[in-house]
Amino acid sequence: MTFISAVLFATPLLFAQSQQKGWHEAKNITANFKAVSSLSDIEVFSAPNMIMLKVNQPTEVRIFTILGKLVSSQYLEPGVFQYHLDAHGIYLIKTEQSSCKIAV
Fold this sequence. Notes:
Blueprint: H1 3-18, E1 23-25, E2 34-38, E3 42-47, E4 50-55, E5 59-65, E6 70-76, E7 79-84, E8 90-94, E9 99-103
């Protein structure tokens, strides 16, 4: 196998691994994220196809589509997390104490 064909076959695999579902810990909130809401237990930020949360206390975070379909439900410890979405749209972020609407 030549070097070029090895790169062509490996690239989609590397891209797929970087776009895995679920919450992933992030180091910090980058400049391309827009602040959406600051609630008692979380801060919500958005960017194209991405939601970022700063969680202040351990809490369950659920993401729903505007039609009410559950996208994700996960218990998060305090920290900064990001979630990759497949589609643009309006989503609802719900925790044990609060909820907000976000356009992504």
